[in-house]
Amino acid sequence: MNKRLRLTGINPTSIKLDKLFALAEELKISISFGGHYVIINDEDRDESLPPLYLEDIEEGHTVSNFPPCTEFKLVYDCPIAKAEAKRAHQELVRKDAEIRAEKKAKAEAKENERRLEVARRLEESERYILATLKAKYPD
Fold it and tell me: How many whole angstroms separate alpha carbon 85 and alpha carbon 74?
């Protein structure tokens, strides 16, 4: 047995919903609820413009009902602020890359020093052994 039953097309609520969908289609507007964002898409709007979001007037609150039951504002990302944020992010990424490269160079230099020290000790040990053997077995 199904846990959910489907309303028929003659149900009054289905008829109202169909009218609402037809009006949205006629107005060329769609609404997407994605997590904490409510995205308003207007097909007549220039696509090069930033997307529109529906937000609650109060900070920290979200619009989660349709139609909204609280005061709301229609907003979009400021292109200048967005470009500045992008530049700041790129600067952080660049600085992070520099720090990583510096750490890598230091680690490589330290590893080279360690290898040189190991080679020096090995050579010193071999010289000692050679000197010991020469002293023990003179020509």
Answer: 21
Task: Please name the residues in contact with 15: beta carbons below 8 A apart, sequence gap of 6 or more.
Answer: 9
Let me know: does 54 contact 65? Beta carbons within 8 Å. Answer: no
Q: Letter for the amino acid at 85?
A: A
Q: Flag whether the pTM goes above 0.70.
A: no
Is 18 a residue whose pLDDT tops 80?
yes
Phi, psi torsion values for 45, nearest 5 degrees: -85, 145
pLDDT over threshold 80, residue 110? yes
76, 65 Cβ separation under 8 angstroms: no
Which residue in 52, 34, 33 sits closest to 42, CA to CA? 52
pLDDT tens track for 58-71: 887 888 777 777 78
Query: What are the structure tokens assigned to 6, written together?
Result: 């489907």
**How crowded is residue 117: how many other Cβ atoms within 10 Å of its Cβ?**
10
CA quadruple 42, 48, 49, 54: dihedral, nearest 10:
40
Bridge partner list, 42: 29
